[in-house]
Amino acid sequence: MLAVVQRVREARVEVAGRTTGAIGAGLLVLVCAERGDSEAQADKLLAKLLKLRIFSDEAGKMNRSVQDVAGGLLLVSQFTLAADLSGGNRPSFTNAAAPEEGRRLYDYFVEKTRAAHPVVETGEFAADMQVHLVNDGPVTIPMTVR
Asked: What is the average pLDDT score of the chain?
């Protein structure tokens, strides 16, 4: 699975003018399931995400996790993270999981995250979404879990 994690002061997702998810300080996580991914990759991604130390401690060092700071998580499905540009300028998305499998793994990831963390909001799978965020730092971390 692939993810892009952004430390945010606030973030929200809108679909057709309505807010589907919003958080204050925390992490905006763009998530993509690739072909061949399973629940095992989703579990590894979640474990890494919850322990990722990218929030500042008293000394200003990135030493705290989203759990340590009681931050929110905004999970947004984004198959375009699997873009392959090796064939030219038009991206290919053949590395992304098929839509049904991508939805299944995204839903699994959301369910497991909600069971493990108190503040979890989401976008809407396969929707045309507008993502609004105030990136804090900015801190943006790409993650790949195999």
From this structure: 97
Specify the number of domains making up the chain. Answer: 1
Strand ranges inside the chain, DSSP E = 2-15, 18-23, 26-32, 55-56, 62-64, 72-77, 120-122, 129-144
The residue segments making up the domain with residue 136 are 2-140
Is 113 annotated as catalytic? no
Q: Does 125 participate in catalysis according to the annotation?
A: no
The pLDDT assigned to 82 comes to 97
pLDDT recorded at residue 43: 98
Assigned domain for 145 exists: no
Which residue among the candidates 6, 41, 55, 79 is catalytic per the annotation?
Answer: 79
6, 41, 55, 78: the catalytic one is 78
Active site residue 79: yes
What CATH number has the domain bearing residue 28?
Answer: 3.50.80.10
Kindly state whether residue 116 falls inside one of the protein's structural domains: yes
